[in-house]
Design brief:
- The chain has one helix and 26 strands.
- The protein is mainly β.
- The chain has two domains: 40-196, no CATH class; 206-331, no CATH class.
- Strands 17, 18, 19, 20, 21, 22, 23, 24 and 26 form a nine-stranded antiparallel beta sheet that branches.
- A hairpin with a 6-residue loop joins strand 11 (132-142) and strand 12 (149-156).
- It is globular.
């Protein structure tokens, strides 16, 4: 994948991309029939007693209980995260919180839009906590000051615009640290809050042109797309041909890299080299909408080089024409 420049305040180490689910009708030009906005329904949450030794933190109609040694802070604590903290706010407010430089365990509980990069990019499965469906993404990076490894976990809640992102420092890679499991186990719907039944948002079509800061994605048909971006290994343009298909339940668009072409500045095709490729042939991913004209791309294959920690987080978004300006920062604009 291709590595874009980060939005201000949050550095991106490398693009590898990740997502969850959308409803797609291949026969209608990859039109997405998800929800243009999360729909509400179901039952309200039940009253729960706060777990001893924790503080209750709420956002977007959900609550988690966080160990008291992770201090409840305001967004004013950003952009310097010198100690463990849990912070709630809108996705734009939390974009100023630099998780890649955190010196302790940090929990961001965001609402109103998807989390901005860097975020973990490997799909770790769909989970359910106290009746709340969660899509879990994981990753790791070289640690911050005095930290060997920073382990990342992102929990996307129904609708994908409320989320919990955590970074847990440690001596080694641990994609789902114990404290993250503990916090997620307390996730529940607040009493009186409607339960969304949506998995994603943003009706539209995948066909057409998409971009992130220094890469493009052109979906030319229901079965073919071309992802293009600079390749530093050969100082050239890398063009990855993706073969597209719908998942068995038509809820996702699956993509597989089937061809890689290197092109120099004069437009001449260069010899292919596996070692230089940003994306290996056979790499699998899937796409979904999180807002109109804004897609996530999800990596389906686990990392093959666990020691290369900086490849565990990155920018996960593709922006299309007509995107609401409030989301433009997601693609480095």
């Amino acid at each position: 994948m291709i590595g874009p420049v980060a939005p201000a305040g949050r550095a991106v180490r490398r693009v590898l991309v990740r997502a969850a689910s959308l409803t797609v009708v291949i026969g209608l030009g990859l039109g997405v029939g998800g929800c243009s906005s999360p729909t509400s329904g179901g039952t309200a949450g039940t009253t729960r007693t706060t777990v001893p030794g924790t503080n209750a933190v709420s956002a977007g109609g959900y609550r988690i209980d966080v160990p008291r040694d992770i201090l409840v802070r305001s967004t004013a604590a950003c952009p310097v995260l010198a100690s463990s903290a849990v912070i709630t706010g809108s996705f734009t407010e939390l974009s100023t919180c630099p998780l890649d430089s955190a010196r302790g365990t940090v929990v961001l509980f965001g609402t109103g839009g998807p989390p901005l990069s860097p975020v973990p990019i490997y799909f770790d499965g769909d989970r359910s906590f106290n009746g709340v469906a969660v899509q879990v993404l994981v990753g790791a990076s070289a640690g911050g000051v005095g930290v060997a490894v920073s382990n990342y976990l992102l929990a996307l809640l129904p609708g994908l615009t409320t989320w919990i992102e955590m970074v847990v420092p440690g001596p080694s890679v641990d994609f789902i640290p114990a404290v993250a499991q503990q916090i997620l186990s307390t996730l529940h719907v607040l009493p009186g809050s409607p339960v969304t039944t949506a998995t994603g948002s943003g009706d539209g079509t995948m066909l057409g042109h998409w971009d992130v800061h220094d890469a493009t994605l052109d979906v030319v048909s229901a079965t073919t797309a071309v992802l293009a971006g600079q390749n530093g290994g050969c100082v050239c343009l890398e063009q990855d041909t993706l073969t597209l298909s719908a998942s068995a339940d038509a809820s996702q668009i699956m993509a597989v890299v089937t061809k890689i072409t290197f092109v120099n500045g004069e437009g001449a095709v260069l010899p292919y080299s596996t070692a230089r490729a940003n994306s290996p042939i056979g790499e699998r991913s899937m796409f979904e909408f999180v807002a109109p004209h804004l897609m996530l791309q999800a990596m389906l294959d686990p990392p093959t080089r666990i020691g290369t920690f900086q490849e565990g987080i990155g920018n996960i978004y593709w922006c299309g024409p007509g995107l609401n300006p409030m989301f433009s920062q997601a693609c480095g604009a």
